[in-house]
Amino acid sequence: MSERLQIEKLGAQGDGVATTPKGQVFVPFALPGETVTVEIKGQRASLLEVNEPSPLRVAPKSVHFGRCGGCSIQHLDPESYAEWKREKVVRALAMAGVEAEVDALVVSPPASRRRVTLSAQRIGGRVQLGFNAAYSHDIVEIQECAVAAPQIVAALPELRQLATLLASGPKPFRLTVTYTRTGLDIAAEDVGKIDEGKRRRLVEFCLGKGFARLSSEGETIIEREKPVVMFGNVPVTIPPGGFLQATEHAEHVMASLVQEHLAGSKYVADLFAGSGTFALRLATASRVHAVESEGTALAALDEAAKRASGLKPVVAEKRDLFRRPLTEKELVAFDGLAFDPPRAGAEAQCEQIARSTVRRVAAVSCNPGTLARDLAILTQGGYRVTRVVPVDQFLWTSHVEVVALLEKPRKRN
């Protein structure tokens, strides 16, 4: 049965929020101030009609918007959208008791996403390839994408052919596609065992299409050319499935902020260093100690540093910073530090940093909530937050990256 609701605000995931006698209801694709007709199922509702649209509503950029789950908020005007994302960071800091001004959102442009993860599944006699529908495992096949790099969009027909070769049954699987300087790097997950016959067909197909590399569950099937990205002026061969910032634009913005903040440091610790996003840039001016738990990422960083010219010394250490954070005593050697942990944040490591004498810290995060918790730990240890910059590399989604810059005043004797 359909009902009419008045949308009061936007929720954290970009859904419209309405209040009913039974509690809050979340309505995808609805905006504050709108009157909408919906079908309610529990706490969620399907939008049937916008009866009274908001003046903030704009035409979406993609013909797939509303079905494809890749984007959730293309229908909000750019200024309101940017402020909504900025406010997510403001609220997270306030809830943690961290006092800091938050800059305006830095937005990555459309068609700049160099990495996307596509879902695929054999249904009936054909393989579907696209993004999952919103709040569903159904696949929406796409012919265009407003956020992906044009090189990825142009390859969609060939990627469908590749998915057809990979599919071995009805089980869904994923293709993570990365645009690199040397071609597309494709990492398959959940495709099952690949026998020699299928391997030969995949190799022949990828060579014919000019893909740089195809891997499955971290194992390389074919590498026509090493997939190379640039971290500053340093070429890096990324490992199969290895972490990479989704857009080059956002990576450049975040790295520039980190570099500028740590510019005067002589010896920098880069924690959760990945394949060297920050370390290899920082090494143009400072000695760097890079710490990472994932072996293939660290090997890529180490190899790139050794091949590069004009860098200060870079030491790579394999270490699980969740279980064994750098201690207060170990941190004595450094006058600058950067950290970019997974979504869980770096609570244990920040407890050690808070007690340290490191003068300047740059914190990068994909989770405003855990970042706020970590910043609270650091400020309680004497650090002062000097700047907070939200960065929008996942355009038209609820995700936001944040760079926070901190300083610790020298103790007076």
From TrEMBL:
Which GO terms are recorded in the biological process aspect for this UniProt protein? rRNA base methylation
**Keyword 4Fe-4S belongs to the record:** yes
The source's superkingdom equals Bacteria
Annotated ranges, domain TRAM: 1-54
Residues that, per the record, bind S-adenosyl-L-methionine: 245, 272, 292, 340
Positions annotated as active site in the UniProt record: 366 (nucleophile), 366
What keyword terms does UniProt attach to this protein?
4Fe-4S, Iron, Iron-sulfur, Metal-binding, Methyltransferase, S-adenosyl-L-methionine, Transferase
Q: Output the Gene3D superfamilies linked to this UniProt entry.
A: 2.40.50.1070, Nucleic acid-binding proteins (2.40.50.140), Vaccinia Virus protein VP39 (3.40.50.150)
Q: Which GO terms describe its molecular function?
A: 4 iron, 4 sulfur cluster binding; rRNA (uridine-C5-)-methyltransferase activity
Q: Which family does it belong to?
A: Belongs to the class I-like SAM-binding methyltransferase superfamily. RNA M5U methyltransferase family.
Quote the protein name from its UniProt record. Answer: RNA methyltransferase
Q: Which organism is it from?
A: Nitratireductor aestuarii
